[in-house]
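Before a colleague's protein record goes any further, I have to sign it off. Would you go through it and say whether the fold makes sense for this chain? Take the sequence as given and treat only the tokens as open to question. The record follows directly below this note.
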Amino acid sequence: MISNLSEQSHYPESASSGLQIARGLKAKSQNYKRLLVEVLKWTGGQPFLTQQLCRLIAQAPDAPSKGTEAEWVENLVRSHWIENWEEQPELMHLQTIRDRLLRRKHRSLKLLQVYQRILQQGEAIANDSSEQKELRMMGLILKHQGKVRIHNRIYESVFNQEWVNKALKTIQADLEPGDSEFLKALAELERKLLVSQVEILSKADTESEDEGSAQALYEVLRDVTSKVGELLGADRATIFLLNDEKTELWSLVAENEEGEFLDIQVRVGEGIAGHVAQDKKVIHIPDNVYEDPRAALVKEFDKKYNYRTENILAFPILSESQEVIAVIQLLNKLPGDEQSDKRPKGFTTLDLERLAKCVVPVRRILESCQSCYKVMKKLRATAALAEATRSLDQINLDTKAILQRVMNTAKKLLNADRSTLWLVDRDRGDLWTELPGKGEVRCDVGVGFVGQVAQTRQPMIIPFDLYDHPSAENAKKTDEQTRYRTCSLLCMPVVSPDGELLGVTQLINKRKPGDHPEYNRDEWPHVPSYFKASFDKNDRQSMQVFNERVGVILQFVKTHETLKQLAQIEPKESVYNTLAILSNSVADQSDEALYNALYYTLSFVTNSINKLLGAEQTTIFLLDAEQSIFWSLVWNPRTLNAQEIRVSATLGIASKMVESRSVKASKNPSKLNDLLVHMGLEPDAINTVENMLLFPVVDSKGKVIAIIRSFNKFLFTYESGGTLSETIEINGFTQADAQKLHERMASTLPILQGFQAFHREIRNLQEQRKAIDPLYQAISLVSSSSGGNAEEVIQTVMQAAKQLTHADRTTLWLIDYSTQELWTKIPQADGSLMETRVPLGEGFAGKVAQTGQPLNIPFDLYEHPDSDIARRTDAKTHYRTCSLLCMPVLSCDGELLAVTQLVNKRHTDDTTEYDPSQWPQVPEYFKASFDENDQRDMEIFNNQVGVVLPGIMR
């Protein structure tokens, strides 16, 4: 009988071990059957406990006399187990149950209360509540004939009334009922933000989604503020965020009596919130707020918005490094029911303690929102310039018109009131711009804010109020003449790809969000409320991205006459094609569109070099950002798209040219076994190459940025009808050809550097998509399947998880509480689905279901101590398991619904199918491990799966 129990166990025990235990009981007492009955009375037949107790009896130093078996077993259990069970290594099973009961405090309260009622009453009516399901899944209670009871005497003795009372008291002391609901709400908000920010970022570069992306963030932040106010019983709550410069706080959410959003800025050190940010200390004023000198701003705002503050509590939110990131400000403690006719008495010590408990989740949400907002602004900067370049074909292609269009977009991007782009005049040594109604205006280098930026090439941010700046005299005089009030400023240099200063962007007066009127000159020098804002570090970063693209465009505009000479086409057509192709590619942002745009633009230069040298074919290889690879683009007729080709800059002829910067000509290039010579040619095409010229393009710093490769110098212009060999110059390319190229490089160099910059941007966009697209697509795929049946949802989740993590195999295991099993449906070779079931606690997925904790086993899984089952399964299926990631899927209220199991992380670029005939050999593409990014992505992904599953499991 003991052997049968061993076979039913979810723990690794052999049949021989069970026989040994049986012999041990028989050796312990002639009435060993009576001993076994007493064992089962204590364990209720629970396999693991039954085995362990039998072993304990067999190893006991004494033996029971006949008729004392029950008393002897009870003394043994209580002395060896009940009294010190938490210290016994063989009772890890009990410790696991304890941990699962207590791991989530807001959930633990409900579980313990349900368990306590069953314990007190002896049994209870069985129902489908999530609490009873979870207690049954732990094995702590059993369902029998419509009722539930404690599984066995050991559980009842260990998790007794005293233990439950103590656990409840501890949890309730740490987490009061109000706090529990509040922290649960914060957890849900944080989860909502994690899921939604992927979609927010994916839409942030689309103008039509701009307001929606920002609104999604504001809604989360508004909800956080509302929840904090509700927890503390405050009439109003405001969260102030500290800007990156740590000079100013700005309100996230604050509403007046009409429900309108208010936008409030407070300098650090001013007002209640400003003092909290400066000193990192709580401020609590229980009454007579207006008499406190720090409350001058509170009084001012109350008067403006027709409100009266009776008491106030302001609390700093600190980062892990103890730096202030935000301030929570609460106004007017609302009276309780027993104080309904009394005035508010201020916030209490208990309020302060409750607020301290929620600091960590609030901080995480605020930091996530800040990070998301920063990335969103950077993506919007690129999208804004795309809008400017898309519209270039609608205006005259002269410098002034293009710059006006670009700066109008910058003004919109950063919500500035005015914007100007000052260009460098090399001939006169100053800056100039074109202002509407005034014509051309000039500024000396070093004079005024713009001149200082041109001189130092350093960005300049002057927050509100600019008149307080020591160098504001010139701005004040200009304002007096123009009757315009300058309040804040952001000036940044515009530099070409090779570091040449091209101009300065100047943005004046950051405007607060909202629909505000145009500035009224009649009110000068009064400062309108919507000008009381400042440009910040995020604005500077956005303009940095913006200005890099402006620098590339200015290079094309500046060199359009050179394009005319090189391409031998009209200047308008040349500039139009160059900029229109760039703009269209950024609007599309697919890899094919981007590379095709670059290929067509690069073709202008290569065709002109062909004509200049009289060559049959020219290829330009440009050095990448890491200066380790030369790249170029060729047309692939099979895919009808441009394809990138790459040559190492550290090997062969390319390496020598980078080092020597010398021209190389060859009359027999087919004999040169070098990648730079052969790259981009069909295998047989090299045999038709009679001569070659390799020309290094060097920048102003003496560094090679490109290599021009030209094949087959012609005697005269090649006409169709003659043979190629009859037109080839026998002597090949000459020093005169190299000199022609050298003379053209002054005008060609900036164009090539522009290509380099655009290529870098393609790479950046690809990296952004790698970070966003897979997870967003996976979540979208699962969301779209929410209306399907169980089989469809299982297959959709498995496919989406596989694509997201580059796993070789994926399984979604659903929990069946009625049978205490995991189940799924696995596709067969004939297209049918076969249902498979696994007991809870068995295998890796079963253990994750039992513990609720993620399990990540890196390569090689066979070295893991619990890999025996995986090895046996692999031997049957001839599949090699090398790495694994198992993650729980929870419902919104924390109930375990399923487990996602990912097997064998694959190297990203290898799509080879696994060959069972090679088993047990490990293929190279399986020598990989799931990492922290995979685990983080799957956590977010499983959150969405947890939203979908309840609909199919009802």
Summary: DSSP finds 31 helices and 27 strands in the chain. The first strand starts at residue 124 and ends at 125. The chain has six domains: 2-80, 93-175, 178-374, 399-555, 559-765, 785-953. Residues 735-784 form the longest helix (50 residues).
